[in-house]
Amino acid sequence: MADFRSHFTLRLLNILAFLWFTAVNGFAFALSLGLVGRSEPSDPGYGSGINKETYLKPEPWIDLVLLLMNILFVGTVFAQWTDKGRDIAVGALSFRWPLLMVSSTLWIGAWLKKSYIASWICSLVVAVLADHTNRIVRRRYRLEYELNFKDELFIYAPFSVFHGWAICVFAANSFATFFPTSAAAGLASKMIAVWALAALSGVAHLAAFSTRSGDIPLSLTVALWQYSIFVHQIHGHNTNSRHLVAWFAFGFSIVTVGAVAKSVWGTVDVIRHGAGAVRLDDEEERDSN
Questions:
Q1: SS3 letters across 97-113
Q2: What gap in Å lies between CA 262 and CA 12, rounded to an integer?
């Protein structure tokens, strides 16, 4: 009975934290589309933080990743009432999932209020938590259960997308906090922007090669984010500086697509041979027979 009560309390906390996360994301998404905004031009309130131009600023349509993430998390909310979902979302993650939701809403609030130092600290916390939760879900789900489309979509994919989104947000937030706008940036800013894009591709490939099945959602999220940076920067007014970073962003998005391809190949391989199967070369297989 005590176990049921504790699980019920945590499930309820997961739902409340998710609803708060969704409401704040909906407001931020409406701001990015221009559906809501400041009442007066001099009003320094919500929305002012999203207008800072840096070399790592993406196009607003990348916020569709947030919309997709919220849709997937709706499935996770329901999945936590199943045996497998309870084992992962409640048993393995415990309070990490609601903590991830709460820290993300705090980040969005600080970012929209243009509190860059506070938002950077929150983005760092979110990135660390997202990495930790995704590793737990990957270990408990990918290594202990056979791949199942429904569970893949609503248990594994949401946390994987969140992980990819969080590391990209941390990179963009770091640039907005510690570097000048793209119009005033110099060579050092360009070099660090290129390094950050390369690091994002490195994280995607690390995730792709960490397990046999790889990590399609994370790699795809990073690739889309890099491409959205390319689209935004290529239309910049300062063509000499922003176009250089834009083409690097495009190049690294293609590099990251390689991680997506590896993850797709690995997932197909796991589906064909099973999660615990060890494939032998043709020669070894003949010798074993």
A1: HHHHHHHHHHHHHHHHC
A2: 38
Distance CA 155, CA 138 (A): 10
Spatial contact of 245 and 193, defined as CB atoms under 8 Å apart: yes
What is the pLDDT tens value at each position of the chain, 289 positions in all? 445 455 778 888 889 999 999 888 888 777 766 666 554 444 444 444 456 788 888 888 888 888 888 899 998 888 888 777 777 777 777 888 899 999 999 998 888 888 889 999 999 999 999 999 988 887 766 655 555 677 778 888 899 999 999 999 999 999 888 887 766 667 888 899 999 999 999 999 999 998 888 899 999 999 999 999 999 888 765 555 567 888 999 999 999 999 999 999 988 887 777 654 444 344 434 444 4
The structure tokens 């969704």 sit at 22
Encoding tokens for residue 105?
């809403």
List the Cα angle 5/21/158 in 5-degree steps. Answer: 80
- CA dist 178 and 48 (Å) reads 17
The reported pTM is: 0.84
Q: Can you say how many angstroms the Cα of residue 258 is from the centroid of all Cα atoms in its chain?
A: 18
| CA 12 vs CA 9, 54, 80, 151: distances in Å | 5, 40, 10, 20
**CB burial readout 209-220, b (16+ within 10 A) else e:** eebbbbbbbbbb
